[in-house]
Each structure stands twice: as C-alpha cells, then as structure tokens.
Amino acid sequence: MAAPAPRRDDAPEPSFADLLAQRPALSTDALAGLMMEEVPLARIAQAVGTPTWVYSAGTLRRRARALCDALREAGLDATVHFATKSNPNLAVVALLAGEGLGADVVSEGELRAARAAGVPASGIVFSGVGKTEREMRLAIAEDILQLNLESAEEAEMLDALARSLGRRARVALRVNPDVDARTHAKITTGLTENKFGVPIALAPALYARLCAMEGLEVVGLATHIGSQITQGVSSYAAAYARLGSLVRELRAQGLPVERVDCGGGLGIPYRDEIPASPAALAGTIKAGLGDAGVKLMLEPGRWIAGPAGVLLSRVVIEKQSAGRRFVILDAAMNDLLRPAMYEAWHGILPVSPAAFHAPQTPADVVGPVCESSDTFAKGRNLPALPPASLVAFLDAGAYGASMSSTYNARPLAAEVMVNGSDWSVVRERQGYEQLLAGQRIPGWITRPGEAR
Question: Where does pyridoxal 5'-phosphate bind (predicted)?
Fold first, then answer.
C-alpha cells in the first residue's frame, strides 16, 4: 500500500477567509467579531473567562444527521454509536442521543456518562483492551448492547464473571485486519504490531471457542483501524473486504454472525486535508459488507464533534526573543494536548474584527506551561495580538477537553454550548478548591512553623 504523501513544509497556510469558509458555524461580524452561530465569542469570554471550550449544537446535529443520511441512502442497516472518548461532556452526548445515536465507551466513567446523558443501555458498545472486572460487572448489570472482546484472555475473564452472576454477556470479537490506516503512528490501531484485537488469521478458531463459552452470547465481529484517516477509503475497503470474507468463513462453519462493528476513524480537515465523505465511507462499507446479511455499526467521534468546537484563549503577552515573535496565551498543552502529542495543526483565528483584517507576521504561539513542547504553532501568520486579545483554536471539539489535565496545577477549563442565539455553560470551570480537594497531608509530615 502506498505511503501517504508527505506534507510540504512550504505549503501555504489557509487564510482566515479559507478557514471560515469550511466552518459554517463560524462567521465574522463587523462589530462583534468572531461568532459561533449567532453568539459573539467575545461575549462568552467576558462572561465565563478563558480558556473556555465552546461547542456548536447546530454543527453536532448537522454532522450526525449527514452521517446517518449517508448510511440510509446507501441502503445499509446501520446504527451509529458516538465515540464518547472524543468528547464525554454530558450535553454533547445527550444532544447526539436525541439525534438517535448510541455511544461507544471505553471505561466505566464513559459508560456512566452515557447513561447519565440518556443513552439507553441497548445503544451502548463497550470497547477497549483493558476492561476491568468492575467494568465488566457494570456492563453486565446495565445489560448493554455488546462488549467488544480484544483477546482470548479477556473472553475467559468475562465468561467466568458472567457465569458467576448467572448471566450471559453479549459480545463481538474485535479483529485486527492488519491494514495500514496511513494516519499518525500514535492513532493507528489496525496493524499486527498494535495492541488492539486479535490477528485475523487467528479469529476463526477463537470465535468458535467464544461460541462454546456458556457465559457469552456471541453476536458478531468488530474492527477499528485508526483515527483521523484522510487518505481516501482504500484502507477501509481493505479492512471491510477482509471482514466480509471472515463472516462468510465463520458462517460456513455453522457459527452465528449477526452484526459487524465497523469502527470509526473518518478524518476531518484541520488544515488542507481532503478526507473522504460519509457517502464514500458508506459506499465502501456496502462494497465490503453489504451482501453479508449483517447489521452494521459505526463508532464516529472526531468526524462529528471535532468541527463543532473551538478553544477560546486570551493573550497574556507578546515577546520578542532571538528574532522570533512569541504570542503567549493563557491556554496551554494541558488544555489542548494534540499539538504537543501528535504535532497536530489547528487553525487559529483572532476574535477581534479589526485583527481579522490586520497585517500579519509570523509568530510562535505558545502556552505558559514549563515545557518547550507547550507550543501550539510555529511561524504562524497572525496579526498583532496585544495582551487580553482573544483567539480561537478551531476544530477543538474532539480530543480537546477530553484529553486535558491539571498539569502545572492548572484547573480544567469551562465548557459552553451554543444553540443559535442561546448559550449555556455545560461544565463549570474547575476552581482551585476543587483542584486541591481530595489531597491529604499525613499527620507525620511536619509543616513549616509546627513543633516537631
């Protein structure tokens, strides 16, 4: 399989106008500046402070419907389960549940979040390579749709637990098709060297073993080859063709295969990528699995939530050093980790209407955390941004807040959702008392000023 074309370092940056044109939830107003739907982002920053995540309800709805429509128009019997790991905010999950989406979860916390948001247990799929006994107990007690098993060892653990509870757990076997998704190495999941699933060559024998386990109700297969896939649909085509062949092989052995979980991973254009469309993905699923007579499932996360969010941040100071211009923000890598972890590119727009049309010069955009990796962009063309200026990081609705931390004892940022002209805080900013809550100093530690 051909390697992805390398990005040219000298490729021109998208202009501010280019970035706006691809993001219909965002616009500029001559007086109010950058808007999300009908709400000025400066108004949110003034009321809530920064850094703050802001999500567009309209974008979430529009993209969820577009994906479901593409599957339906392709004639596929398919359900969509939002990858909760991309954004577990209860308001986001609840809104998508209202659009008919289920949830794909990978932890007890995500399962509980999905249920709290109103996702029915019959719409929840539990994935992940390291499910604990406690998590398995909860999944069985909730009677969720299925658990995706990743190994023979995990199957034996779940079988024993289910039998001890007098129950049967519905499961699918996650198969590793050994397909290169041609994405970042840290988010590739479908190669034999990755920790996920079982090699496809070993799947028939293990599937038969699972079907013989009294504590398991085996319903089908699952796969997931990676995240942020932008190199067309050829990787999907290879994976689904192999899954289709496996379905036929298992049925030839008299084994039941009711459904196939096709995973997620469809990418979005952070910069100038041209990912496949939902229609192209649906067509690829149909080509590989459309005649298999199975119910289909998808687990999108980024494609739905990524373009729906921005991270609002305020400039602390600009400085010049060794001939470089540094724009230092109050947001940091503990808020938006993707640039530090994946070398990810995010569009950055000024919020001020005047700054949007002002002359630009290259700048390194950095945060205040004491790490050189706390860098969002290098040499990015930006207007002058004096202290207190606001900027918005684009496409931050997925793997933004969900990957944030309190490194450097920085509280977690607030989260806001916009719906037309309305907006609401959907997660309060963490306070310093909350940040320190739960920590204890043992009595045998003598603090300064205390008698020994």
Answer: 265, 299-302, 399
